[in-house]
Specification:
With about 375 residues, the protein is an alpha+beta fold. Helix content is about 45%, strand content about 10%. It folds into four domains: about 70 residues, DNA Methylphosphotriester Repair Domain, CATH 3.40.10.10; about 100 residues, Homeodomain-like (Arc Repressor Mutant, subunit A), CATH 1.10.10.60; about 80 residues, DNA-3-methyladenine glycosylase AlkA, N-terminal domain (TATA-Binding Protein), CATH 3.30.310.20; about 80 residues. The longest helix has 19 residues.
Length: about 375
């Protein structure tokens, strides 16, 4: 399901019939009779097969004229990590879009930052996500706004600002067009009201090795208190003054509290939180690919929730999951692509060195 054009429609429908949580976020089902798109785990009655078409991203669904289901709430689905590594350009582009690259700039400028042509970038997005870059950016704004409407007590004007819309008018027009109702009508009066910053829960794919993550963050000097991580925000670096804290919530969710003096900076802060805690990782895909190497099979099975601690400000040109600091592993690690960094992390956590791997390989050859 890494390529929008290769999505197996029948396999998707079987996953919907069983509400298979493994596919949550990997694709969305569009119901032609209602004009709504849903997650595979939607609790609503499953439509007939002939009334459904499946797309690889929420942006593709919205670009095709479907609106998000208010019951299963696609904005709460985990990010699709399976495509990561299939296109480094798409990976980098999505990171920039999530940080707000298209809130004020255009696709041509985005392509320039990536060192590719605009037409090529559009073609890659169609291939991997089934939608144009501007549609992806628009869908991210809408889904973040929906999360803020449901999970916070921010005013609609504040939600518009915090989710990247240029104006309240544009925010209202977008929601009216998508949902045929104003955004305020989506707020459920029974939902929790929070005080003291913007509090959101972000999704990820279980399992997650939280002990290893917090230990790694503490070693590198981050502020970690038990199972709570904190960071001060500065205007030159983050676009606002304030702070952010992160701690585990229920399975598949992480609790984030952001206190900032300028809500326009919120999308960028959330994008960096996702990167630091590797929330887009796909443990199933990583484990499947790395387990093909006999040296990693047992290690991956023993720690399936191991994640890569990311940098708060990532200046790297390539995706973090494929970076390799230990060049002595380079030859062996070629078969681990696009998850070379995860393979190296598993070895480091187990205390296995490149020399150990070479000795094991030599012994097998000698035998």
């Amino acid at each position: 399901m890494e390529n929008a054009r290769e999505l197996d429609q029948e396999a998707c429908y079987r996953a919907v019939l069983t509400r298979d949580a493994r596919f949550d976020g990997r694709f969305f089902g569009c119901v032609k009779t209602t004009g709504i798109y849903c997650r595979p785990v939607c609790p609503a009655r499953t439509p007939k097969r002939e009334n459904m078409v499946f797309v690889v991203s929420a942006a593709a669904a919205e670009e095709a004229g479907f609106r998000a289901c208010l019951r299963c709430r696609p904005e709460t689905a985990p990010d699709m990590g399976a495509w990561r590594g299939t296109s480094n350009t798409v990976s980098r582009a999505l990171a920039l879009i999530e940080a707000g690259a298209l809130d004020e700039g255009d696709v041509d400028a985005l392509a320039g930052r990536l060192g590719v042509g605009e037409r090529h970038l559009r073609r890659l997005f169609r291939q991997h996500l089934g939608a144009a870059p501007v549609s992806v950016a628009q869908t991210r704004r809408v889904l973040l706004a929906k999360a803020l409407i449901h999970q916070t007590d921010l005013s609609m004007a504040q939600v518009a600002l915090a989710s990247g819309f240029g104006s309240v008018r544009r925010f209202n027009e977008t929601f009216q067009a998508l949902y045929e109702r104003p955004p305020s009508a989506l707020r459920r009066r029974g939902e929790k009201v929070h005080e003291g910053g913007v509090r959101l829960s972000l999704p990820y794919r279980p399992p997650y090795d939280w002990d290893a993550m917090f230990a790694a963050l503490a070693v590198r000097g981050d502020a970690v208190d038990g199972r709570k991580w904190a960071r001060l925000l500065t205007r030159p670096r983050d676009g606002a003054e304030g702070s952010v804290t992160v701690e585990p919530a229920e399975a598949g969710r992480v609790a984030v509290c952001v206190e900032i003096d300028d809500l326009k900076a919120l999308p960028g802060v959330l994008a960096r939180v996702r990167r630091v805690f590797d929330l887009s990782a796909d443990p199933e895909a990583i484990g499947r690919d790395l387990a093909a190497d006999p040296a990693l099979k047992r290690l991956v099975a023993g720690r399936p929730g191991l994640r890569l601690p990311g940098a708060w400000v990532d200046e790297g040109a390539g995706p973090a999951n494929d970076r390799l600091d230990d060049e002595t592993l380079a030859a062996r690690a070629e078969s681990w692509r696009p998850w070379r960094a995860y393979g190296a992390l598993h070895l480091a956590m187990a205390g296995v060195t490149a020399a150990d791997l070479m000795e094991t390989t030599d012994a097998k050859h000698a035998a």
